[in-house]
Structures
1.
Amino acid sequence: MDLISYLHTNEDLRVPIIDLAPYLRGEPNSLEQTASALRSASEDLGFYFLTNHNIDASLIDRMFVQSKRFHDLPLEKKLAIKVVNKVVGYLPQGGQTQRTSIYGKSSHPDTSASYYIRKEYASDHPDRLSNKSWIFDNQWISDLPGFKETVLEYFEAMERLVCHLLKIQCRALNLAENYLNLHDAFNPPVYNLRLLHYPPRDKTLDGQFGIGPHTDYGYLTLLAQGDVPGLEILNKKNQWIDVPVLKDCLLINNADLCSRWTNDKFRSAPHRVINKTGETRYSIPFFVAPRSDVNLECFDSCYSDADPPKYKPITAGEYFAAINQNNYDVLKK
């Protein structure tokens, strides 16, 4: 059973497509076969489409409706919940510049605008009462009926999918089946949902992007792309390749801490967004990161005497701090 396919015949331009249906149905050998497909995609491009992922298409559609509702609000309403000292709330156009990237120069701030939402914890949750570092206070808009409810429904669905992906990664990395799901770094995982809005390309300057060239900083990203293309990935031959929009597929990519943790066996691929169309573009990435206080040491299965660990142990908190201060202009004020 072949669970990986491609749209493009040119190997340099291909983004893998992995079918999750056999694994979710519990078919014999499907975990091993899905893990093999995931391993191949992660070691090569570092991005892959996921089809038959069990996230209801109508829920994803409703999320894009809610994202548009938010971004259509008057600017003064959005600025009332502007990002201040943590990346939670509204980030207006010009609030981010990819200064730390080594994959291409951003000469101007990114043109995209974003709304960041973190996992909700009840007021009496033990982690909130203990002031854990992964607890954030979301900034909700009060006059968008149904918005919060849809976002929280989406969070729950994506969390279930993340648990599956971590299990498949364990098999792909020759780790115990639930090693990652039970690891302190993912108890709990740190989630960040970003509702992105990109204006048409004709409003940008030379050297300006919707989002400039970068790698994601966390562990894993699950992206709902919307209907308008614009994402480009840098492959191993230093070619920027266009990513198609595939209906009912999510686009998954490894991020920096995944790459470090696996000794660069799983690639954290540079990518950027250039909205070349005359249309407004929306996308919804769901970021997965380890807890900020857990040291990440190279997995035992990812190094040997001949291939020793390339990186010193680091916490997600340490890794994120310098990047955020450099890239998010609103955090400097």
Note: The mean pLDDT is 91.
2.
Amino acid sequence: MITEPRFSDDQPAIRMAKVNHGYIKGDHVLGDVNMELNPGSFTFLTGPSGSGKTTLLQLLYAAQLPRNGKVSIFGIDTSTATRKMLTSVRRRIGVVYQDFRLLDHLSAYENAALPLRVTGRPEREYRDDVMELLHWVGLGERVQAKPTTLSGGEQQRVAIARALVNKPDLLIADEPTGNVDPEMGERLIRLILELNRRLSTTVLIATHDKSLVERLEAPILRLENGMLMHERGRIG
């Protein structure tokens, strides 16, 4: 299913420079954040609840624009990019949201296939890949189920399949193993690792799962009180 590298750009996948963004009781949610992730890197983002991780992730997939400083994704400055440019950038990013954001009127299959469908590709070109991915995440018997009939763990697996289905150049995952059992969590992480290794997909995983972080020994960024620190390893 995952076969060939696609990321050929020579600039960093992500670059943040002196980003200050937002306020809570007079304090910056993010204060002077600098970060660079190179193509093909695999990095964890950790930190306590309320530290600004969600805000940081939203900046990294261009759901928000920085109030001060600069965020570049694939070399594109998100603050000056046109709407068309931002749309093109977002199509190269897979996002696993902590709250899933599935469409209740669509089946598991239709939700997973949505990133391919919106590009106008005919279904015959991607149906087999979507079905294979849903089988891989353990939903082969639930492809026609609507989100309201799925458990929280099943919904999360649909959300992960949706984020991976177009083999993104950048994957941003917010607690991707938070609602599944350890065995399925291990399977999902193996799939993400395969994407990272075979396609040089840049991966940033926000997680509170200490065992996952310790087991993979990837570089760690820690966000605390709006400040970003390198906790382990060389980033990028």
Note: Helices lie at 53-60, 83-90, 108-117, 127-136, 152-164, 182-199, 210-216.
3.
Amino acid sequence: MKYPDFKHLNYCFDRLKKGYYSDKYFVRTGDILIKEKKHPRVLMQIFAKKNGIFCGGMEATYVIKNSVSKSDGLSIKALKDGEPFSPWETVMTIEGDYSLFAHLETVYLGILARRSAVATLVRKCREKLHNKELLFFSSRFDHFLNQEGDGYAAFIGGADGVSTDANGILIGKKGIGTIPHGLIAAYNGNTVDASLAFDRCVPKDVRRIALVDFDNDCVKTSLEVAKTLKKKLWGVRLDTAENLVDASIERIGLKEKGVGPQLVRNVRNALDKEGFDYVKIVISGGFNPEKIDQFVKLNVPFDAIGIGSYFFSERIDFTADVVMVDGKPCAKVGRKYNPNDRLKTISI
């Protein structure tokens, strides 16, 4: 398998080797085996108890092979990042001298859990969206040191763009985004002025996407920005809060809150009527597969969607078991060697 450059993790290796990030009983297991000069060759088998999209195999391998005293003799096999897996299916195996890698179980299971959960939730949304753009806008909802791997997992799941440069570093992408509410506020709440400032100061190859809900009248603001930026305007983003009814919705006597189907149609119809049919619509705010499915089935005319906290809303836990020792079956009751022909050797 080809793999990204995970060198952003290199600063961790001294600590990883010492067990700093590992559950203490795994660290002590390694210490005992080394002190007892016991070097069993084991087959460690990893699985999850639910369906998902596998991700993190290459990252975990990179970490393992750089966090042991010697990697010679270690054989690591895994599903390809992006492949689906079933409950109890073996997704990864590590074979070699157990004293070398016993201390790393916490670490590699954590990598697989995080990356696979993100990739799985992104894929769930991707499958609903067909050819519409999916934007991973999740970084503000978790610790910044998670961003590199999360962005990689998002692309594995099917995201088209990410919000930070860190999110995109492993696949050679830059962060993208729109105009935030803060910039509009800095221009005294004037979305047009903020959009003009953005256009003056930001490189021309960056999409001009205006956030248009600051005054809670997305139709009015979208038209104002479109008339000012004209062809330079790539799109508008609707991000109306879930407890608010947009002014254009109130004008037609409805009570739809947040970014709903009617609001998107109102904006699309208004832009088209004024000759701005080239301006795309980006939606955001509380979306998940069920809400996306509703919009798609109703043929709501949006072009891209930004999703945030949903992508961190579910966990996929992985379990590792020693199932073979020195070539012979040896596992706790209830577990056994479960070979999987889909696993491929990861060479790093």
Note: The chain is about 35% helix and 15% strand.
4.
Amino acid sequence: MSHEPQDMIRFENVGLRYGFGPEILSDLTFRIAPNSFQFLTGPSGAGKTSLLRLMLLSLRPSRGLVTIFGKDAARIRRTEMPFIRRQLGVVFQDFRLLDHLTTYQNVALPLRVQGRDEASYRTDVIELLKWVGLGERIHVLPPVLSGGEKQRAAIARALINQPDVLLADEPTGNVDPPLARRLLRLFIELNRSGTSVVIATHDLGLMDQFDARRLVLNQGRLQIYD
């Protein structure tokens, strides 16, 4: 008997409000399937970042069900959260690199926090930095890096744990069009290697370069175009 693969993330009738204000996200129902690629888009202020934060479990919904890797998010114990988070790679819009650490140290930080011995990951970190085009910038501090280099370092840090799902918030928002295309190719290659990818962007030109599912937020509601 065959079974459909488990969804990476599932939302069922999810709503979100801050405090006692009106809902900013309403009745969201969708799934992020294994090995899938989708763009999350919509006008500025539509709630893309809030939706990503719900997927990351850094926000709780006001109502509805969020399931991640088959677990009800509301029932995940605090002790389980580090394991869940390691399965999620996140690229933030503001990079969040630590200025006192080198490119190598920033990318290796998630593994170091886990208590891994450097000898077990050094080669992997260096190879990943070469893959994103930073092989010559391994020992450079973030203030010396260009915006595009910082973006690629942030992407490498998100990938170092080989996540099941990558969530990227406007990952091409601070780079020129040629570099945006290069970054998109990196995400496509990552998806082909088995990671589900969600890219939040308002860049229609970028989305038109790759035929992928679109999750479109508008006035707090979601439309899906496969």
Note: The CA atoms of residues 54 and 60 lie 6 Å apart.
